[in-house]
Specification:
Bound molecules: aspartic acid, magnesium ion
Strand content: 25-35%
Strand order of the largest sheet: 3-6-2-1-9-11-12-10
Structural class: alpha/beta
CATH architecture of one domain: 3-Layer(aba) Sandwich
Radius of gyration: 24 Å
Distance between the termini: 40 Å
Helix content: 25-40%
CATH class of one domain: Alpha Beta
CATH superfamily of one domain: Acetylglutamate kinase-like
Length: 407
């Protein structure tokens, strides 16, 4: 007997036929003794359509009502999927997020899961039923329905798997796993059989979009292996877990990520004296602006002035322009520059820690491709370079070719 959580995204349940196919597949891949929980998203583009409806009423919406609206999408798909199981002779029941015991913060439209009380889910499983749970939603201490942010069904699935101590959480999606680079950019990208939670989180932070990052954090917290695999085939995909178990240790670099959603900010000619960097970055922190790469360098040691360069996420740009205009005056800068034509390319891999040759290889790959590096930053398991945006694809390809030599 296994306890299995399977999550199917919106494209997997977009039509009644697809919903029936999901039920068929689940019945085929599990045995009647298994305890099976299915988490589903809203059918197809339902969530987008619901947002359009809200937009048509008002641009300035109350987030509580937004959640009330968005949560209906998943309520449709769970009922239909439970009916599909019943029609095939398997007992099943649908539960909303609140019914499944998913307790969240009250941050409407981007709530986080605080706790899961799975008593009802366990009781239904004990009756031999397939339990179909609505992804993306929960209930706050205020007794109001909340949603978990776009892509939140992944997080629901992993959290439930954790709370139930499931053997595995399978995420069915329209890609067949996690690749060493975006296959649309690098056709020779490899599908990874395994990747660690930390590497997956780092890939997501640096621009890879496979799963909602919170779901990976949830997997790490509860130590639930997450199997990312295709809805359209029965091939196995990528398992995200704490440690490797297989032969893939030979790859020090696990993936190359690209993020076009960055802006480079240059604060030019700031006085070279204590407290200046504090002034700049505490002002940004006070407004919850996430800053990524930071470089300070001496421009002119006689005149005692420095340049500070850093990157932010593009959606924060307007806010940062305002903050920097104010701070710039206060500390007396010579110039402020905002450059949107940049992209960040990164190599990620837990094995690079304490291995300086890896950074050298990456810079060499970019140099050989004639790509200029503007800013460099590193973490224990990643190296990132800021390059011109129109060279980002070439940069990803060059780095990938260097680390994943054809075998
Ligand atoms: N239906 C929600 C969305 O489209 C949640 C999900 O798909 O995971 O974002
Ligand atoms: Mg969706």
């Amino acid at each position: 007997m296994m306890l299995i959580v399977k999550k199917f995204g919106g494209s997997s349940v977009a039509t009644p036929e697809k919903i029936k196919a999901v039920a068929d597949r689940v019945l085929r891949e599990t045995s009647p003794e298994d305890k099976v929980v299915i988490v589903v998203s809203a059918m197809g583009d339902t969530t987008d359509e619901l947002m359009n409806l809200a937009n048509a009423i008002s641009a300035n919406r109350n987030t509580r009502e937004m959640d009330m609206l968005l949560a209906t999408g998943e309520q449709i798909s769970i009922a239909l999927l439970a009916m599909a199981f019943q029609a095939k002779g398997r007992d099943a029941i649908s539960l909303t997020g609140p019914q499944a015991g998913i307790k969240t913060s009250d941050a409407h439209t981007k709530a986080s899961i605080l706790d899961i009380c799975p008593a009802r889910v366990e009781a239904e499983l004990a009756k031999g039923r397939v339990v179909v749970v609505a992804g993306f939603q929960g209930i706050a201490h205020t007794n109001d329905i909340t949603t978990l942010g776009r892509g939140g069904s992944d997080t629901t699935a992993v959290a439930i798997a954790g709370a139930l101590n499931a053997d595995v959480c399978e995420i069915f999606t329209d890609v067949d796993g996690v690749y060493s680079a975006d296959p649309r950019v690098v056709p020779s990208a490899r599908r990874m059989k395994e990747i660690t939670y930390n590497e997956m989180l780092e890939m997501a932070r640096l621009g890879a979009v496979v799963m909602q990052p919170r779901s990976v954090e949830m997997g790490k917290r509860y130590q639930v292996p997450i199997h990312v695999r295709s809805t359209f085939s029965s091939a196995s995909g990528t398992i995200i877990r704490e440690e490797y178990t297989m032969e893939e240790k030979e790859f020090i670099i696990r993936g190359v990520a690209q993020d076009n959603n960055v802006v480079k900010i240059a604060v030019l000619g700031v006085p070279d004296k204590p407290g200046i960097a504090y002034k700049v970055f505490s002002a940004l922190a006070a407004d919850h602006i996430a800053v990524d790469m930071i470089v300070q360098s001496i421009r002119n040691s006689d005149k005692k002035i420095n340049d500070i360069v850093f990157t932010i996420a593009k959606p924060d740009l307007d806010q940062v322009k305002e903050i920097m205009a104010k701070i710039g005056q206060e500390i007396g800068v010579i110039g402020l520059e905002f450059d949107e034509d940049v992209a960040k390319v990164s190599a990620v891999g837990a094995g690079m820690f304490g291995n300086p040759g890896i950074a050298a290889e990456m810079f060499g790959a970019l140099g050989d491709a004639g790509i200029n590096i503007e800013v460099i930053s590193t973490s224990e398991i990643s190296i990132s370079c800021l390059v011109r945006k129109d060279q980002a694809k070439d940069a990803v390809t060059a780095i990938h070719n260097r680390f994943f030599k054809q075998r």
